[in-house]
Fold Protein tilB.
Amino acid sequence: MVLITEELVRKRAEHNEKEIFSLEELSLHQCDVERIQHLDRWCRRLRILYLQSNLIEKIENVSRLKELEYLNLALNSIERVENLEGCESLTKLDLTLNFIGELTSVASLQHNEHLRELYLTGNPCADYEGYRDWVAVTLPQLQTLDGTRIEHSERITARQRFSAVQDEIIQQQKCYLEKRRKQKESDREAKPEVNVDEMTEEERKKFWSETTAYTPESRRELHRQVAASRAVPPPPERPPWEAPPRPIRLVTDDGRPLNVNPTGLKFELEDDEEQHRLVLRLDLYKHLDTSLLEVDVQPTHVTVLVRQRPFQLVLPEEVLTDSSTVQRSQVTGQLVVTMPKPAPSAAPPAPAAPAAEDHHPEVPPLI
């Protein structure tokens, strides 16, 4: 069970420098909270409170939040509307996707004179015949129900047939509450452990084809199973006589890179002379998340980390690291690393031929 602690509230109040007494907005959604507590004493100035996607079964301990304007309790396990009379400034209440079947409990919101928006979509009561007419008449201050504005003409029509609608609502609510009573009794009964592996093929098909009612109890049990499946057991301790895993060497003692491929990935290195580049094609798992890959191109070698496991290839020629590119196929998952080679240096000019000397026969001096 996750409790609302001062540490949790301060952690979610970072935008307010972790000051909670002056906090005006607080988000505690998806925290697996099962009970509302302490907030009406610690955070009296709250104007907006997000508590959606938790395991809360009852609205409580919010009546002192006099300045609260918006309360979001969507996706919880609440079965009736209660204990909101003290929220004098409440203008918007979101109870989407809960288990509210006791529609008459909504009448307690008559005390919230400033309430303008109410969301009950996805609750059992929203399926009752005449549900919208009943709410429109019961809460005259309401302007929007389930995201749709209540028109003046709609409210007049609802008032004219309210007596008949009231009887229908009470009858439907009575049937639902009887159904919930039976569900609770069934849930309290001890259920034998089921081992699917020991079933016959016919029993297994029947077991998986059975539907389970979606109730606060089944939702709590499903959450418990998910939480248990997420719990990762600690790694087993290595026996003292077992040698630790051998580290993978990427370079020699004198600093020269090595070819490394411990996972046996298939690859191809193409020397594209026309484009003057080297192209490495590395076959990866198609559904491997790209965020699990790291590529490092060096002048003499390329290293690819796949889930922290290295693949390294020594290149036959030096490449330009700044001009190298990495692409991945969305169809096959193949990784393509394109590494341009340095431009070939211009050939040094041929030495000039020595100038031909004029060979004239030696003329004897005149006497």
Remarks:
- The chain has a mean pLDDT of 87.
- The CA atoms of residues 34 and 56 lie 4 Å apart.
- The two ends are 132 Å apart (CA to CA).
- Residues 267-340 form a domain with the Immunoglobulin-like fold (CATH 2.60.40.790).
